[in-house]
Design a protein that fits this description.
The protein has 648 residues and is α+β, with helices and mostly antiparallel strands. 51% of the residues lie in helices and 17% in strands. The protein has four domains: 208 residues, Orthogonal Bundle (Triger factor/SurA peptide-binding fold), CATH 1.10.4030; 144 residues, no CATH class; 127 residues; 93 residues, Chitinase A, domain 3.
Length: 648
């Protein structure tokens, strides 16, 4: 998972896409309060983390951006939390992307580039989450989303304009991806290279348990590895969830509301007739008359149409009003006035002359008020419940904007509040490893970790039906190491395992040294005196490595970074021990007679070169505009995001 996260947040590939999503990130994902985001720990002062030309990027702006981007990446990697994101380069990635955007914007404006209001309107209107039930852009949804995210229309427009200038500037450089054949040939030949060797293992468990550790050894190991036994900052969260189902019982429609709804939709419940029509549209009346004559004489309309080089259209289960909307009232009257099997036309239509055959007639019975009641009750209940949810949400939002406390909000709305145990930022309770927060509860945890003690409660969307949670921060449990007296057996076990790991490494180093001095690998292992698994042959080609992606066994990957007739040590995961890789032979490749491989390599290199040109262009822009970073302010943001202590 960590490798995926690193690729997501640090990759220089796809800079155009990066700029595109940065523009709407504030709308697409919940970033919390733009003026009061953050965790406990270091307090942000508003100092500049970077100066880009004439613009300053403040600590608060950077933290907002990091949290927004982290939420975006969490859609691809649901288990991602802020600490993991930051520790794997997320802070630096967000900072550099933001600096790039600011630098490109200033450079573009210096060259006279502008972004029109209409272009920005188009970008906003293209966001799917801002489309109403009719599939069109909803200004109401846009305003609601701005209010929920505490953003302004101008902030969003400024971000979009910056993004569009960035895209326009880097698009030409990213497209410069042509690679000469002679440049690609050595790389293509490299793909055909094959290597073979052997791998052996020195398991940690082969070292034995050793003597029980003394108190002094345990204490020293505990102090040296205190971070391993430190429980990160936790938070106790107070929350109340309001869902559609909770309000359903109090939003049942009255008989009058049902009757009024029935009357307003009487056309929907009235008896209707549906017909299946086969029609052919011809350009001139003479051709239409000839086709109609054939069909009325018994020739199937499909056969007659195809003989004329046309394909008939079949309209199944169409109603008169709908057909009139597609064609004309005259055509609808004729088609719905004819008997089953009748041929109608030719009649003039907007596209020419139409011949119609009536294939089927279906009489659909209407519904009385009693028959329609279940459907009407369900629809009205849903509508009233959604309205009640919205009204309660707005009332709570108004109250919190006036500094109402969590307790006041809960009491005023007669909600049932719950309190969590002290949770980590990923929703786990370290005191109970069997319990993990449900995925739909993680937004509540994220909101609580974005709050500071004394903040007003936050509203967090919980489902697609308008359900939400009222979230308050009860208290913060600072990061602290577990007492040695409580976890001594665990520390003693870890000490013994680490002692065995170090001993196994010494054995592995001795074997590597002997092999590299000329001792055969089998003889070197036998001389170690340690009981080890049998040596295993390994062989592969670079092409196989390329196709395997990230699923390459570490010993094979190491073999391709070694010189022939040498060995190297490799640590295995989970304290399992050490692998010793020996490279016996390298078979060089030659792709001169394999044009397909050379061409594929040219294509792959082109993608890399295009992105490298883009990166170099952005770097040149940054140098021209002028960028200065404030390492102290960046460290403050890091501490605030990860919940570490720190001062100003």
């Amino acid at each position: 998972m960590l490798s995926l996260i690193r690729r997501l947040i640090n990759s220089k590939v796809g800079l155009l896409v990066t700029f595109a999503f940065l523009a709407i990130i504030g709308l697409a994902f919940a970033a919390g309060d733009i003026n009061g985001l953050g965790s406990s720990g270091a307090k942000l002062t508003g100092d500049a983390v970077a100066t880009v030309g004439k613009q300053k990027l403040t600590e608060i702006e950077l933290r907002t951006r990091v949290q927004s981007e982290m939420e975006n990446f969490r859609q691809q990697q649901p288990g991602l939390d802020m600490i993991t994101y930051v520790n794997n380069g997320g802070l630096e990635g967000s900072l550099n992307r933001t600096i790039d955007g600011l630098a490109l914007e200033q450079f573009g404006k210096d060259q006279g580039m502008v972004v029109s209001k209409r272009a920005i309107d188009g970008q906003i209107a293209s966001i799917p989450s801002l489309h109403g039930v009719d599939g069109k852009f909803s200004q109401t949804l846009y305003q609601q989303l701005l209010a929920q995210q505490r953003l302004t229309d101008q902030q969003v427009r400024t971000d979009i304009a910056r993004s569009m200038i960035g895209q326009q500037l880097v698009a030409p450089t990213g497209g410069a991806n042509q690679v000469p054949q002679q440049l690609a040939l050595p790389y293509a030949s490299l793909l055909l290279e094959k290597r073979e060797g052997q791998v052996g293992f020195i398991p940690t468990q082969a070292m034995g348990a050793g003597a029980p550790p003394t108190d002094a050894e345990v204490a020293t190991f505990y102090k040296r590895n205190i971070a391993r036994y430190t429980v990160p900052e936790r938070r106790v969260i107070r929350y109340a969830v309001v869902t559609h189902d909770q309000l359903k019982g109090s939003t049942a429609p009255t008989d009058k509301e049902i009757a009024d709804a029935y009357q307003s939709q009487r056309a929907k419940y009235a008896p209707t007739e549906k017909r299946t029509l086969v029609q052919v549209i011809l350009a001139d009346k003479a051709s239409a008359d000839a086709l109609a004559t054939k069909v009325k004489a018994g020739t199937p309309i499909e056969t007659a149409a195809r003989a004329a080089g046309l394909e008939p259209a079949t309209l199944t289960g169409v109603e008169k009003a709908a057909y009139a909307g597609q064609s004309s009232s005259a055509l609808a009257d004729a088609a719905f006035g004819a008997a089953k099997g009748a041929v109608v036309g030719p009649l003039r239509s907007a596209l020419g002359f139409t011949v119609i055959r009536v294939d089927a007639i279906e009489q659909v019975a209407g519904k009385t008020l009693e028959q329609a009641k279940p459907e009407l009750i369900a629809a009205l209940t849903k509508e009233k419940t959604t309205q009640a949810l919205g009204a309660m949400h707005d009332a709570i939002d108004d109250a919190t904007s006036k500094n109402a406390t969590f307790a006041e909000v809960i009491a005023d709305q007669k909600l049932s509040a719950q309190v969590t145990p002290a949770l980590l930022s990923d929703g786990r309770n370290p005191d109970d490893a069997t319990v993990k927060a449900a995925p739909d509860f993680l937004p509540v945890v994220a909101a609580a970790f974005a709050m500071e003690q004394g903040d007003s409660p936050q509203l967090v969307p919980m489902d697609q039906e308008g359900g939400f949670a009222v979230v308050g921060l009860d208290r913060v449990v600072p990061a602290a190491a577990s007492a040695l007296t409580q976890i001594r057996p665990v520390v003693a076990r870890d000490f013994a395992l680490d002692r065995a790991r170090v001993a196994a490494r010494k054995v592995a180093d001795d074997i590597v040294a002997k092999i590299n001095k000329g001792t055969p690998i089998a003889q070197a292992f036998a001389a170690s005196g340690v009981k080890t698994p049998p040596l295993q042959p390994i062989n592969s080609s670079r092409a196989q490595l390329a196709s395997a992606g990230r699923n390459i066994p570490p010993p094979i990957a190491l073999m391709f970074s070694m010189s022939e007739k040498t060995s190297k040590r490799l640590e295995l995961g989970n304290n399992e021990g050490w692998a010793i890789v020996y490279l016996n032979h390298i078979e060089r490749g030659n792709a001169a007679n394999q044009p397909n491989i050379v061409q594929a390599t040219r294509t792959d290199l082109g993608k890399v070169i295009g992105n490298e040109y883009t990166a170099q262009f952005i770097e040149a822009v940054r140098r021209q505009v002028g960028v200065k970073k404030n390492d102290k302010a960046i460290a403050t943001v890091r501490a605030a995001l990860t919940g570490q202590g720190g001062g100003n």
